[in-house]
Amino acid sequence: MTLATEVPKGYVAAATSAGIKKSGKLDLALIVSEVVAASAGVFTRNLVAAAPVLLTAPRVRAGRCQAILVNSGNANACTGPQGLEDARDSGRLVAQALGVAEELVAVSSTGVIGVPLPMSVMTNHVPLLAAGLRSDGFDQVAAAMMTTDAFPKVASRTVAIDGVSCRVLGVAKGAGMIHPDMATMLCFVLTDAALDQQLLEALLRDAVNRSFNRITVDRDTSTNDMVLILANGAAGAPPVTTGSAAAKEFAEALDSLLLELAKMIARDGEGATKLVRVDVEGAVDDEDALKVARSIATSQLVKTALFGEDANWGRIIAAAGYAGAKLEQSRVSIRFNEVDMVANGLGLGAEQEKLATAVMKQPEFTVTLSLGLGRGSAYYYTSDLGYEYVRINADYRS
Amino acid sequence: MTLATEVPKGYVAAATSAGIKKSGKLDLALIVSEVVAASAGVFTRNLVAAAPVLLTAPRVRAGRCQAILVNSGNANACTGPQGLEDARDSGRLVAQALGVAEELVAVSSTGVIGVPLPMSVMTNHVPLLAAGLRSDGFDQVAAAMMTTDAFPKVASRTVAIDGVSCRVLGVAKGAGMIHPDMATMLCFVLTDAALDQQLLEALLRDAVNRSFNRITVDRDTSTNDMVLILANGAAGAPPVTTGSAAAKEFAEALDSLLLELAKMIARDGEGATKLVRVDVEGAVDDEDALKVARSIATSQLVKTALFGEDANWGRIIAAAGYAGAKLEQSRVSIRFNEVDMVANGLGLGAEQEKLATAVMKQPEFTVTLSLGLGRGSAYYYTSDLGYEYVRINADYRS
Fold it and tell me: What's this model's pTM, rounded to 2 decimal places?
């Protein structure tokens, strides 16, 4: 990857194979801002929140952060008071190694639930990580965050703020697509732009709603889900203020960055062979459109049909019909990319189906459903459900 | 099957291979009550309701029915005004052959969506079916209703009403378990007890809530789902009246009959190798318990772990955590049959896990989650998700 050139100023990182994963792959990483950064975060709403979420959420929400410690291979979830103590101790090791206040350290974990975090690993490796920090370490960080991911996920953007070029870098992990209900989604965003905590929080929340929340169902938040953003101002641009043109530009960059990472997660959807965008238009309002898009994108029967390259529009319209949105069957039309499949609720015949089947053989395409009722629209990304998903998840711990 | 002896008095049936299914298997059946029966029904809430649902729902709800025509291989869904006309014409053929009023005929279809019903088949075969009606034809009816079902589903009960023995027979189809969002679930219940339409409707609704609604998620109703009950009074028992001891006994028989059929559907869950009961107890109330049970039973990660015989309780507790119910992690306990796996939110170690894994090798077992908060309880039936599910649904139409 050549993305290292896009790393925002004032951030360094390191990763190592600490032995938490049996495979011996990279599994522990440290990200550090050279100065204290403004911070914001979005966390799992699962009531069974993992220890690192419980520890990190209040710290990050307090608005200041300087370091993020992340491990894969162990979620430190369902580990009770000991798990919380282990998360706190891990953070303290980082604070000591860097000489910063404990409250400025975020910790994050992903992996198997219910197994204590191996603390000797932390004691041994955190000081080594702190000693090995460098500005081109982020590709390795992304690798160290992977669990069932098939590839690391890094992306970046640049934004000019009052003529000063600022960078936004995101590293993410996630491959469980439809039901990431355990330890599946982490994302860390670093920028050298200057933003206060309140604005950062607002922009992050919006961007997450338009990206990661369009590939997952709310109810399927994992025990460990976490999206953090740090802004350290190291680029030297003036602070971005709420409502300014700079805020709008920064928001656009953040939106597109998180959507790119979200699409990477969807494309990596365990065993997925296709990335499919579901577009819904003509709904009564955007909320209704989102219900329909989500219903189609998460339907197991739709997803297996995508895997089978079967242009089975009956499953799509059925999923729309139970979405809880206003719908009149006789006004529905469906197309696969530019190929019309259904008009006025009726199939358009074998010829069109043949053309749609050809569209489905592509690794990426769009299914558009028009409801013909209003101006509401929404999108959702999904992947197909194949044998590999079953294999990966049936055998995950073995 | 020896169930023919349990057929309620005054009902006859016939089935045939009409050629709607390419395979040449049984695909068209007719059930007739010798006298007009009281009727009630529960129908899909999918806004994309199939033509037979649109035709049959108002007829059955009017409270009187004498015949049910059912076909498999074609759902007559998303077929527009022509589909509705075809459903009506099919019913008319039955009415003519039997010499009964058209409004007394229910029609029902299951199979592929979006393909016109082959009406020449109906014209040719309905009169033959009507000529071949017999009292032991119900096993064949069950076979003619099958699509991806691995086995036919028939069960019966007897109830003594004021000393008179009455019978209740149910025939069902369904194999898509978690997401029966197309043409997946039909059930016809016949009794020779006498009940008026209002009581029949109330008892049916309750029984469906405790059976078929415990194996499916509401939002996943298909375009064709339909449960009908006919009561023709042919046993000669006095009418069952609301609030009576007889009503209670009849309700119990109906509940247990539908639960038996629902469990058959879950066990048949496309490619399923296990039938798992999820019991939730100690919730704040029954509603919360049901949310948790449903969340666990429908989690794709839980279901793949069941297939992999992996006692991955982390996925179970995570699914409970996002159910939207009150939950305190430190009070949760989990057991597999009698084997304790989790207490106070913490795993009980490798020995218990080994015992739980042994439980999972059985074809049928119970996972119990105690929330430790109150007296609310609920159950749900689920099956595992394996390769066969993917194979069946990726290739369904080919």
Answer: 0.80
